[in-house]
Amino acid sequence: MDKRNESSNTDLILLGLFPDMKHVNFLVCAILLIYTMALTSNSILILLIWVDSHLHMPMYFLLSQLALMDMTLISSIVPKMATDFFSGKRNISRVACGTQIFFFLTVGIAECTLITLMSYDRYVAICNPLRYTLIMSQKVCLQMAAISWAGGALTSLAHTAYAMHFPICGSREIPHFLCETMSILKLACDDVSAYEKALVVTSIVVLLIPLSLIMSSYALIFLAVLHMKSPKGRDKALATCFSHLTVVCLYYGPAMVVYMRPSSYHNPRLDQVLFILDPILTPLLNPLIYSLRNKEVLGALRKVLTS
User: Fold this and answer.
1) What is the pLDDT of residues 6-54, one digit of tens each?
2) How much is the pTM?
3) Going by C-beta distance under 8 Å and a sequence separation of 6 or more, which residues neighbour residue 257?
4) Alpha-carbon torsion 148, 149, 154, 156, what sign?
5) Please, are residues 160 and 98 in contact by the beta-carbon 8 Å criterion?
6) Burial group, residue 119, by CB count within 10 angstroms (0-12, 13-18, 19+)
7) Which residue range or ranges hold the G-protein coupled receptors family 1 profile domain (predicted)?
8) Using CA atoms, how far apart are residues 299 and 55, in angstroms rounded to an integer?
9) How many Cα atoms are found within 13 Å in the side-chain-facing hemisphere of 32?
């Protein structure tokens, strides 16, 4: 009995989604609806890319990987949050907390890498179309996906192991609906200033450097588009680029605000809003952004529905 009590005392406590908010149950139900729609839309997108031969292209393969990452990301958050809310149990073990941080960081970093590689795909397609199939071969696409997943997992493993090794004393309450690195650091007894600096360096590597590469790619793309003589080709290129740039803003905007602020400037309420916008709402918007403006995807959907 004493061992069980001692074990339960080591658990952390998630205070949940906006603890002071009235009628939060409506927000939880809305998030569950978003979760269901995100899983459905991303699954449909992956299925269409898999069954339609017209979509067996590098851009759509990378897009299917992004959809898979979105499903993994939102699934690492929403089920636990909903279970805690409806059961009334807010505790989470350190192992489960570390596991959630690992999956969240793995997919988040992998998506940043993949989005950068997708911008390179668009650069090659528009600026070097004659060599596109040679440069963006199937082997290269598989390597891009592997680099994204492996890079995310290795970076996440290092950060998760280091963040979770800090002893926690005093309050074990996390003012959040998920285990998240910055929230865990606030509970640590030891001096975490060195690790916070390491987080800033990682944020620069994971966010600012890829973002600068994306902007450089699109600067070259827009220069190439301006020299296109065909209005139809110009419009198609701009439509594809607009979809990708919208996704870039959805990912990088909230992530930079969360991870590139000093810990003293972190506000639990603002962080929760940002975590709803980025890892919960974005997985729903991504397939809509890419499909509604894409004739090939819409055509594949019509074929499946009419067959």
Assistant:
1) 344 578 899 888 877 778 889 899 999 999 999 999 999 999 999 988 8
2) 0.88
3) 270, 274
4) positive
5) yes
6) buried
7) 41-290
8) 10
9) 13
